[in-house]
Write a structure and sequence with these properties.
Layout lengths: L2 H31 L3 H4 L4 H8 L3 H7 L5 H10 L7 H14 L6 H15 L8 H25 L4 H29 L9 H13 L3 H8 L5 H9 L8 H19 L4 H15 L2 H7 L1 H24 L1
Helix pairs in contact: 1-3, 1-5, 1-6, 1-8, 1-9, 1-10, 3-9, 6-7, 7-8, 9-13, 9-16, 13-14, 14-16
């Protein structure tokens, strides 16, 4: 496969996954922002949404205040934000069009149809109800695209490179939402285990569709270390860091086997999976969850760079 084709497939899947993630952030933030102030204290959930999406610097260059209108406009529809939902779908469609022959008809119809449908939204919904429907539509589009790929693509290098993009992006997203919650969201005067802490950890589970999974696995009330354990170390949870790296090792090994050569990408993926396998949540909290997640985000980025240098350039 040409490196350009692999690059298009890799980034196509990353941006579809990112669009869904941003929609999930906005959906959860909208729900939290409607709760009584007595529950949420003085926290600015809309500011936290920008931080969770990794867009704080870009947002500050365009807006003076992190309120609902500004954050929704920036994260959902702004062409100035390369990680907005609109930008993600546009970039994903551009990449998909470049490798249309490598995609199945169902995949192309889903991403092309999503782009055409997105244009009909114009500058965005005019009410919270319309915004909620829009965000649900974004998530459903991502699920249709992912399902089309899973059920219709030949298991060859085109499929493997698209999966690498998806799981690399998913690992980064899960790590970032955990880091923002633990390090940025809870004000210093708020108690761990208080009402604000509880609702924000609940918001994390809702963002990654893990509420039911949490209660199935732990059969306990919400506890920060158990939420972190589910989303970092539990391989049964599809969005956990451990699950993502199980898949990343699988697909980098598949590519290596097909091409008859291993390299830095395979070694880096295995090293990160081994680190996750050998970690224990008590040790992570004792040494610092923020520090652990920060290191993981940096190493995940290095893995992405290894994939790019080895295959996509």
């Amino acid at each position: 496969m040409l490196s350009r084709t692999a690059d298009n497939l890799f980034w196509m899947s990353r941006y579809v996954e990112r669009a869904e993630y941003v929609a999930r952030i906005l959906e959860t933030t909208q729900r939290l922002a409607t709760m009584p102030v007595s529950y949420l204290g003085g926290s600015n959930e809309w500011e936290s949404a920008v931080a969770t999406a990794g867009c704080s610097a870009a947002f500050a260059r365009n807006y003076d205040e992190a309120n609902e209108d500004n954050v929704v406009a920036f994260l959902a529809f702004s062409p100035a934000n390369p990680s907005s939902i609109r930008s993600c779908f546009e970039i994903a469609r551009t990449n998909a069009r470049a490798v249309r022959t490598a995609l199945t008809a169902e995949m192309w119809e889903t991403i092309n149809g999503a782009w055409l449908e997105l244009k009909r939204f114009g500058n965005g919904p005019t009410s919270r109800e319309e915004l909620a429907r829009f965000l649900r539509w974004v998530q459903e589009t991502s699920l249709r695209f992912d399902g089309s790929a899973y059920r219709s693509m030949l298991r060859n290098d085109a499929y493997w490179f698209s999966r690498l993009g998806l799981y690399l992006e998913r690992a980064d997203n899960t790590a970032r939402i955990l880091d923002v919650k633990y390090h940025l969201l809870l004000p210093v005067h708020e108690p761990i285990g208080g009402s604000l802490d509880y609702f924000q950890w609940s918001a994390i589970l809702r963002t990654v569709s893990a509420n039911t999974a949490y209660h199935w696995v732990y059969r306990d009330s919400l506890k920060p270390w158990l939420v972190a354990d589910l989303l970092i170390l539990n391989t049964q949870m599809p969005r956990s860091l451990a699950s993502c790296y199980d898949n990343l090792v699988r697909y980098t090994d598949s590519i290596a086997h097909a091409y008859g050569r291993q390299g830095p990408a395979q070694r880096k993926a295995r090293a990160l999976r081994t680190r996750l396998t050998n970690s224990r949540i008590d040790d992570i909290f004792q040494s610092g969850l923020h520090e652990y997640i920060t290191d993981f985000i940096a190493e995940n980025h290095q893995f992405g760079a290894s994939v790019s240098e080895q295959y996509l350039m």
